[in-house]
User: Which sequence fits this backbone?
């Protein structure tokens, strides 16, 4: 995966979580499946998408929440 | 100094000859105001017969999605010390061996940053530091990391793998539980720290079917030591035991498959019908030993009661040659685990454990998905469905 594609994937993930904030709780696997569909033409693997998610976590753009099961959410200050 | 909160119900739990968690919390409360508040809230819980924690919420350290369990008091004004009372889970050493220096340093961390309370080890197998606020989490994590330890699992991830003391302390261990536990823990640290699963997933490793870590009842994937060949009998020691107690009554008559009998003075065992339950070996440890072809059975799908009720594990692999696989860095089992997680990712739903998924889609579908051939040992009970579906290439 090129840096450019990775940036596109990260932006897409962040956009999705932001758009549905407070309405839907995305599990990481939901995001992975969604991105696989979205970027099917670019041949992204699950590991690529998981790597993008990991970077979003490390940059604190997304965090994990817990309510019975774990889900992705925006940090509290955002 | 008088007690901050009166605790008549908890005081009852200090009576008697048993170790009391109340006494320990009170000792910690002498140095920690927040732990005094903990006593007050626990007293209310005993009075009301419900706990007063709010579960979940945001608690964690940077970059990790797991390892901290958020707890918030329902009465933050009344018990300000435990407004936030989070637990930090720490991966234990395999077999739970520590030196005293580590224990002292960990206790110091807990007293400095949390409520002075430690949990060795919770039902999860983790070391837990109890009673910290989110503001202190990063400092605690850094201090623990300096001791060479890392955070454990929580949430929808791989939970901290756990094993019995195995060959380090136990003559019954049929394989090196600590080695595989440590190896898979390090292999799957990412899965441990990032909750990407549908729900939790647990490995537990027991060296024999005494199952000291309750793997058959508590883990999604249980590794239970066993052997393939015959039980080794020392007839002289059997005779010694016969002089001490009624071997017929307490051993042979309690064998679940009745596969043992006396031929004159000698003990005979029909090994083909032995289910390796360990009862006879436990009772006659000097006379009986497991055979030489040792490995483990792999069971799948056990879980505690949450969500849909408890399940015991069911047989997936009757004999896994773990010692042979160890020479190859456990490649075979890692490939099987990877196939299982792929299938669970694809077909599982939120908060569905893998055992529940198998119950929903059927064992055949699951086995096809992970690439294992069905075998008779996997049959849990006689079929109740009279319809049999054949594919075209089957007779």
Assistant:
């Amino acid at each position: 995966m090129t840096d450019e594609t990775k940036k596109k994937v990260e932006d897409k993930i962040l956009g999705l979580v932001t758009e549905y904030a407070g309405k839907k709780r995305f599990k990481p696997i939901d995001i992975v499946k969604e991105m696989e569909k979205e970027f099917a033409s670019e041949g992204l693997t699950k590991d690529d998408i998981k790597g993008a998610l990991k970077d979003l976590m490390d940059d604190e753009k997304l965090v994990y929440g817990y309510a019975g099961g774990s889900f992705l959410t925006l940090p509290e200050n955002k | 100094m008088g007690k901050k909160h009166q605790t008549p119900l908890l005081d009852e739990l200090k009576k008697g000859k048993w170790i009391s968690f109340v006494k320990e919390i009170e000792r910690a409360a002498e140095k920690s105001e927040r732990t005094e508040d903990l006593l007050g809230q626990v007293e209310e819980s005993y009075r009301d017969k419900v706990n007063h924690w709010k579960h979940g919420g945001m608690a964690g350290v940077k970059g990790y999605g797991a390892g901290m369990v958020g707890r918030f008091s329902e009465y933050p004004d009344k018990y300000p010390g435990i407004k936030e009372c989070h637990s930090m889970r720490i991966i234990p050493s395999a077999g739970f061996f520590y030196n005293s220096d580590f224990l002292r340093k960990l206790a110091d961390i807990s007293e400095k940053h949390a409520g002075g309370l430690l949990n060795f080890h919770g039902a999860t197998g983790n070391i837990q530091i109890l009673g910290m606020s989110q503001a202190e989490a990063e400092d605690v994590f850094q201090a623990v990391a300096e001791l060479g330890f890392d955070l454990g699992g929580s949430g929808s991830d791989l939970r901290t793998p756990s094993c019995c003391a195995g060959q380090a302390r136990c003559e019954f261990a049929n394989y090196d539980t600590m080695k595989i536990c440590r190896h898979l823990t390090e292999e799957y640290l990412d899965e441990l720290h990032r909750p990407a699963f549908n729900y939790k997933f647990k490995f537990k490793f027991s060296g024999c079917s005494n199952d000291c870590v309750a793997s058959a009842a508590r883990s999604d994937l249980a590794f239970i030591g066993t052997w393939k060949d015959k039980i080794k009998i020392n007839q002289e020691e059997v005779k010694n035991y016969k002089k001490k107690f009624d071997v017929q009554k307490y051993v042979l008559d309690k064998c679940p498959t009745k596969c043992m009998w006396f031929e004159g003075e000698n003990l005979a065992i029909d090994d083909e019908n032995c289910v390796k339950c360990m009862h006879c070996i436990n009772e006659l440890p000097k006379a009986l030993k497991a055979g030489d072809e040792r490995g483990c059975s792999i069971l799948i799908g056990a879980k505690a009661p949450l969500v849909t009720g408890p399940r015991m594990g069911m047989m997936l692999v009757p004999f896994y040659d773990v010692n042979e696989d160890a020479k190859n860095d456990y490649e075979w089992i890692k490939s099987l685990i990877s196939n299982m997680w792929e299938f669970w990712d694809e077909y599982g739903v939120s908060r569905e454990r893998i055992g529940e998924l198998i119950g929903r889609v059927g064992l055949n579908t699951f086995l096809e998905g992970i690439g294992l051939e069905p075998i008779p040992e996997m049959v849990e009970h006689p079929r109740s469905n009279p319809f049999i579906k054949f594919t075209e290439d089957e007779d």
In short: The mean pLDDT of chain A is 86. Chain A has one domain: 3-73. The beta strands of chain A are 63-67, 69-73.
